Amino acid sequence: MGLPPHWADEAADRVLGTGPDPEGASAPAAPRLGPHRISTGISPSGPIHVGNLRETLTGDAVARVLRERGADVRLEFVADDFDPLRRVYPFLDARVYEPLIGRPLSEIPCPCGEHASYADHFLRPYLETLKELAIDLHLERGSEMYKSGRMNKAIVRALEERDRIAAILQELTGRKAEPDWSPFNPLCPACKRISAAKVLGFSGADETVSYACACGSSGTIPMTGGGKLTWRVDWPARWWVLGVTVEPFGKDHASRGGSYDSGVRIVREVFGYEPPFPIPYEWIGLKGMGDMSSSKGNVVSVADALQVVPPDVLRYMVLRTKPMKAITFDPGLPLLSLIDEYDDAEAKNRDDRSIALSRASGWKTVGVPFKHLVVVLQIAGFDLPRAFEILKQNGYHGLDREAVTSRFAYATRWLERFAPEDIKFALARELPPEARALDGPQREFLRRLAARLTPGATGEEIHALVYDVAKGEFPEVPPPRLFEAIYLALVGRTRGPRAGAFIAFVGEEFAKKRFLEAAEAV
């Protein structure tokens, strides 16, 4: 029996009309090749992190499959930079940004002064990382869509159908609209806020809106750049204006009566357009801290993640998991396991289809587990020529030095930023003082282990030997106590890398000498 199809292939089947119909009907004879527009996006109100990346990568994976099938497809990325600043987040200076609450993100000064706006401050770094991830997208800015007049026809239609929209929202949410509710939020030219004015009337022919603002200002403004539609109307309006046929979105919008449900009704009944194929997704959490959230500060930026893991592997982390299954990002040891899973064609859990959809940077398999490289790098004291010599001594010949050097760079940054403390070590050049406190059984264990070490043994063979000596010759001593002796002799700590591989990497001759030295120390 073959492996189940990848979720992106299944989504592409549904989009093209070539997969099983949910009602059991047969698929059409010819695929619907487009044009297809896959829309993703974000409101750049804070640092954009690995959790936000799931939406973009989900859209990109489906776009890649559709291109494989010969479809006309474009991935849209909509930056909702015309959204208002809703509050002062913990990373902002309240004295500066408190007075700016309610203004569009595109109209607020950059926090660092180096970007065109507040929105650009967070958006630009993210877009740069998307290039590293080989995501081919077309950027749409909400501010430009409204300021260019492209949204005017949708604004007019929404204002004309205000009562129909209010009725839809009441049916789905149970909340009745206030008498002065409008699907359009005017941008007050006096206080510059987009969240404080009410619509008093409008002219579809002139494309103007009359308003009154809480600041006391009132008048008539053009629809072009003069405000934006409320979220539940803006979303389906964008589907219509951009011709969206596929859209990934967070699970919060997929709830019953949520934004997608109301969008389906509004886009059909108000804008006369069919809703896009939905791909809801679960959140990405940060190990031990819950779902990633910029406002809570529990995030890892995409740029930081790409410092310690190559683009291909970061893509793989997301794409190997079905969208509605939660992902926990653990930048510690599990990240090393993920790299090794990506590299090892024989790995048990490796998903080859996800690998194919993750290609981004020409990342090469080098034949050395990444976990080993982390150990070797520390044994060598971060001296690369010495690290290569250790690899050679341990049977790794004919390595692609450029590719391995790149791996060492990732390993170095990982050790600096995310490595657990018990993984970090420095191979002691002399017998560590801590080794002088070894008890009698520990000293005898090291003496016997040294006597049985042989040149050329593999890490697995040495590991088996360690267990054989510990259990066979010291049955009354708990094995962890004996293993501590190995680490105390080599690094002056009670824990370290997997013992067999560690001894193999430091070398049989060095380990034997050090163990005997520790056994005799007083």
Largest sheet: 3 strands, parallel
Q: What spatial order of strands do you see in the largest sheet?
A: 1-2-3
Helix-residue proportion: 40-55%
Number of structurally distinct domains = 5
How many H/I helices? 21
Description:
- The chain has 21 helices and 13 strands.
- It has 522 residues and is α/β, with parallel strands linked by helices.
- The chain folds into five domains: 172 residues, HUPs (Rossmann fold), CATH 3.40.50.620; 57 residues, SH3 type barrels (Roll); 70 residues, no CATH class; 54 residues; 88 residues, Orthogonal Bundle (Arc Repressor Mutant, subunit A), CATH 1.10.10.
- Helix 1 crosses helix 2, helix 17 runs antiparallel to helix 21 and helix 20 packs across helix 21.
- The mean pLDDT is 92.
